[in-house]
Amino acid sequence: MNKLKHFLSKPNNREWVSLILLLAVSVFTLDYRYETQSLLTSVTGVQEHDPFDGTVMPIQEEPDWSSLSTAEYSMSYQELPASKLEPIPEYRTDYLTYDSSKLGWSSSKDLDIRNTKITYPVPYAGNYELDDCGEGCGSHPAVDIKAPEGTPVYSIANGVVSSAGTSSGFGQYIVIKHNGVPDPQNPSQTTTLYSSYSHLSEFFVTEGDEVSKGEVIGHVGDSGTATTYHLHFQLDSADAPWHPYWPFTTAEASAAGYDFWDAVNHGVGQDNLYRYTHNPMDFVQDYLDSDAVLTNTSVSTVTSTSTTEDTSSSEEVSSSVVGVNFSDMEIETPAFIMPGQTETVTFKLLDENGNTKKDASFDGSMTVSLSSGSNAKLNRDSLTSADFDKGEAELTFYADREEDVTVNVEIADRSYYSSIIYVIASIEPFAKFGIASDGYFVPNKAETIQVQALDINGNPTPGFYGNGDIELAFVKGSGSFSKDTLSSKDLTTGIAEVDFTADSD
Fold first, then answer.
1. Closest C-alpha among 448, 423, 446 to residue 438
2. Is 92 within the bounds of a domain?
3. Does residue 11 surpass a pLDDT of 70?
4. In the predicted model, is pLDDT for residue 203 greater than 90?
5. What residues contact residue 395 under an 8 Å CB cut-off, 6+ apart?
6. Which one of 154, 230, 495, 499 is CB 3.0 to 4.6 Å from 482, fit for a cystine?
């Protein structure tokens, strides 16, 4: 934590200036709970979409897991023969709680139960023990659906994309807002629900997109905190503090004496789970539209990796890289990360004006490394032109203990370095705002000031989560800001910098 404070502090002493932050009370809310998985998403206004007309399953086709060979068990969706795919089985709690020790391998019913158990390994409000306990034995707020890598994922109903992004826990995820749907607790009334789809390998929608029931929105993956390919399918109520919701914090798990996995297994936060989430499979199956038309309008956001033949060709010329047609590189990294988390590192190839060069290319490969190989790792150690989609490429960064790390890139005679990534053990919650500068301003000359999210001790903290605008205004004097408003996205490191120009002295 001291390293983060050092990073967020200027070497010279700061003086407070007479400026005030006015909070926009119309939409501004704060949540003081910290989630290590960065689960919070921005608030979007009510948007209209096609009315509710039933649901579809989030995954349509699955293999019969109980009948696959060893080789087929690890195949992707695209590799499996069509004859091995069939409609996903019904989510049945009586099957999920059936005693596994009594299942045989000859009865068709026993095989159906086996397949259902494998397809839904972690039920709603279940645990990670695979112990036939079923629902109510833990605090997992979703249903995990095992599926081959690359399996299409469908929007369960008409709606609007509330958010789509990446977090260390949920990996690549999508949240869809559904207005005017039957209330699971009172079907005679309507409400707003948020469905979420996590651990994706890729997604094809962005915030604000209107989606239709049965539209392909992504593919199954194992991004984030996942031990195998599966879909984490969740349904939140509108009053959940964030989406996708998680029912306990790291601090609450630690206070109970558990790590993350054991906290789920022992039902930490189960009351919160029942308050803010609903059984997603019950909802889908209650309103299933068997005549729904499925659509696949997706365009892959992930560039295919090179074939073995291409890779060999790259290796042959890697020692003498030529043909680099970009001017610079920007490496976007998280300012901080906690041990055990994963984050995305983005590489942008730039033109001479500092803009992303969408047609950038280079021969051979570039070497990607970390300044420290002992506490962190990247999922790959090189990039080729094929890895860049419109001038951008992504790698996954993982850290396992506290230490400072930078990402380094070497290509031909060029070297590029990222800013420091601080691996820290804990983050203090947000308590108040502050503004810092050197205290001196020259009329009509822009000076940089810091808007700081501070903890209870007055130290900058990235533990700020708020919805709505933070407005900057004057208590005394006059001038102008380069930005009049800020949002939580501007304070992901605890500090936002704004240029201030005074009108006079």
1. 448
2. yes
3. no
4. yes
5. 344, 345, 347, 368, 378, 379, 380, 383
6. 499
